[in-house]
């Protein structure tokens, strides 16, 4: 059972570089989301999607783009990395409308220098 | 938007004693309140949840209580064991928010052998 798979696990970027964090789930979940985790600030929602072709902004969307071309995949793009984007990023998925468990990936630790 | 406050930020208890973590939420329409446990280097994992039509729920050594009037909910862990050491997050989901979960800032629980 793969669940939610994130790649890469670790990444170091230079300021101004771009990259894509990958997220895939095999549970046929409609809802997928990206969070960032910073010390003392919990998990903050970046972007989310309630289905293929539908995305929306969360609490801290600036500097990030997402797309949802399939049910399974929800990549997060950093357009021009900044040191403030140094964080641990988590992807999560769940069913819509059933108030059920959100499954999280293992996380991507990103450092921007 | 929804706001969730969580206390304490750190908690140390002797093995075998009980631990209590408390959260308050701002939107009275919130109807789903999960608790997640995050072990070092891993993504958060659901340990228990409660819906707004229930006042208490138990699962072995773990229980959650909900006071809708006061808009707060608590996690209770009894007979704590070393493997309970982790970071715990509460969350709230409010209707009309497209399944967006708002998380508390986390509690680092340390069980002292």
Shape of chain A: globular
Helix-strand makeup class of chain A = mainly beta
Rg of chain B, Cα atoms, Å: 14 Å
The residue-averaged pLDDT of chain A reads 94
DSSP summary, beta strand count of chain A = 11
Question: From N to C, what is the helix and strand string of chain B?
Answer: EEEEEEEEEEE
Strand proportion of chain B, as a percent range, falls in over 45%
Largest interface: A-B, 27 and 26 residues
- List the total number of helices of chain B: 0
Number of helices of chain A: 0
What's the Cα radius of gyration of chain A?
Answer: 13 Å
Number of strands of chain B: 11
Structural class of chain B: mainly beta
- Low-confidence sequence ranges of chain A: none
Multimerization state: heterodimer
The major pleated sheet of chain A works out as: 7 strands, mixed
Can you offer a commentary on this structure?
The complex is a heterodimer of chains A (113) and B (113). By secondary structure, chain A is mainly beta. Chain A is built from no helices and 11 strands. In chain A, the strands form 2 sheets. In chain A, strands 2, 4, 5, 6, 9, 10 and 11 form a 7-stranded mixed sheet that branches. Chain A has a 4-stranded antiparallel sheet with strand order 1-3-8-7, with no helix packed on it. The radius of gyration of chain A is 13 Å and the shape is globular. The mean pLDDT of chain A is 94. Chain B has 113 residues and is mainly β. Helix content of chain B is 0%, strand content 56%. Chain B is built from no helices and 11 strands. In chain B, strands 2, 4, 5, 9, 10 and 11 form a 6-stranded mixed sheet that branches. Chain B is globular, with a radius of gyration of 14 Å. At the A-B interface, β4, β5 and β9 of A face β4, β5 and β10 of B.
């Amino acid at each position: 059972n793969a669940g939610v798979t994130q790649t890469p696990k670790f990444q170091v970027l230079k300021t101004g570089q771009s990259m894509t964090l990958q997220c895939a789930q095999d549970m046929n979940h409609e809802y997928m989301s990206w969070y960032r985790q910073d010390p003392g600030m919990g998990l903050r929602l970046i972007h989310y999607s309630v289905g293929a072709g539908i995305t929306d902004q969360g609490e801290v969307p600036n500097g990030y783009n997402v797309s949802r071309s399939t049910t399974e995949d929800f990549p997060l793009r950093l357009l021009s990395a900044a040191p403030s984007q140094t964080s641990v990023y988590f992807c999560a998925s769940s069913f819509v409308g059933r108030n059920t468990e959100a499954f999280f990936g293992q996380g991507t630790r990103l450092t921007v220098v | 938007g929804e706001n969730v406050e969580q206390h304490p930020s750190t908690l140390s208890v002797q093995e075998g004693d009980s631990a209590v973590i408390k959260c308050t939420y701002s939107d009275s329409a919130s109807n789903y309140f999960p608790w997640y446990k995050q072990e070092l280097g891993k993504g958060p994992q659901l340990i228990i949840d409660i819906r707004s039509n229930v006042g208490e729920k138990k699962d072995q050594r773990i229980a959650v209580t909900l006071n809708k009037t006061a808009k707060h909910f608590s996690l209770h862990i009894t007979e704590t064991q070393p493997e309970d050491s982790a970071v715990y997050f509460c969350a709230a989901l409010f209707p009309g928010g497209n399944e967006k979960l708002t998380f508390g800032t986390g509690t680092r629980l340390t069980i002292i052998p």
